[in-house]
Amino acid sequence: MYVCSCFGITEEEVRARAAAGAGTPRSIASACKAGTDCGSCVRRIQALLGRGAAPRRHAAGCRAVAGSAAPLDEAA
Ligand code: FES
């Protein structure tokens, strides 16, 4: 499955880069450019690296996420 559609980077490639020592989104970007164009994949890359940015915010009840999700939920 693609993580970064801008550069055609898959989850497997991100995991392989992480196993080779790229432990941050910045180092993944340096290795394969993922996350350096539109940036929409950076949170997914963080999650794959075990940095858990999105889930942690959810668990903490981040108001920004909850506030922005409400209109989308209503529209769906
Ligand atoms: S989807 Fe990764 S930079 Fe756009």
From TrEMBL:
The keyword Metal-binding applies. Keywords: 2Fe-2S, Electron transport, Iron, Iron-sulfur, Metal-binding, Transport. Gene3D superfamilies: BFD-like [2Fe-2S]-binding domain. Pfam families: Fer2_BFD (PF04324). Residues 2-50 form the BFD-like [2Fe-2S]-binding domain. It comes from the Bacteria. InterPro entries: BFD-associated_ferredoxin (IPR052371), BFD-like_2Fe2S-bd_dom (IPR007419), BFD-like_2Fe2S-bd_dom_sf (IPR041854). Belongs to the Bfd family. This is Bacterioferritin-associated ferredoxin. It comes from Streptomyces wadayamensis.
